[in-house]
Amino acid sequence: MAHSSSTLYFLISLSVLIRTYPSLALFCNNTIGNFTSSSPYAKNRNAVLSSLASNVAAHDGFYDTSTGENPNTIYAIAFCRGDSSADTCESCVSSAVRDLVMKCPYQKAVFSWGNGDPPCFIRYSDTPIYGILQTSPKYLMVNHGNRITMDQHQFDEVWRNLMERLVNKASDGTSRLNPDLLPNDCESCLREAIHDYYRCCHGWQGGYVYKPSCNFRWELHKSFESSPSPFSSSPPPSSLSHPATPPAPRENIAEGTAFKLMEKIISSYVHVLIWAICALHGQKYENLNEVF
């Protein structure tokens, strides 16, 4: 990599974009009621969970289902990060299922944000969840390794610009296939997640926010596989492909600031990772590579 500039990577993925934080991101909902081991709901849950891992691996890393009659219907969604292989996806979901059954044995609604590397996401409830925006509960984590040491004002300016562009790309209704959330709901969820991080963890070099309908993470190091997902049936759009040669410098104040800031970072990457159920399905992720 050239030392005169740094590369900013953007990733928009249908899958959960986190590392391995198994038990830290498991939520057992105790507010909507429980079920007993001999109830119809228990039977339906067991039926769904017993085949969830194989089903999500067989359906390109994304699977939603429901089974049973009211009031014992269970609705479930599971998916894997865009750079997962079918084997790692199935293994992750299988492990996550064992974890949540053990730790949330009788709750009717559960969220599991990641249990593997690459990670995966599982959610089930006794009410419909597909296409419905839900931003709570939330789970936040900050990278306590280091605080931002460069000019904070300059860094914040670049950071906010990156977040704005990424949210707009993730919630663009014209580029989505088989959408779950409406574009406005997608944008609302992502903006709320970014705001939650900024309010909680401003000044640290990375962190993440988990929500039922979206997830936000950014780091100063690479934390995803750059190769296309084995689930992907087609390459990302040509408009988002890596440029053959770096563009000429542009006399824009904001981009000039970004260039100076990236020179200070030199060999570091700023990696911004966002997944949302409202993001692309089928096209597992998009990469946008910009050189300042």
Automatic annotation (TrEMBL):
Residues 1-25 form the signal peptide. Transmembrane segments: none annotated. Residues 229-249 are annotated as: Disordered. Residues 233-249 have a biased composition (Pro residues). Keywords: Repeat, Signal. Residues 23-129 form the Gnk2-homologous domain. This is Gnk2-homologous domain-containing protein. It comes from Eucalyptus globulus (Tasmanian blue gum).
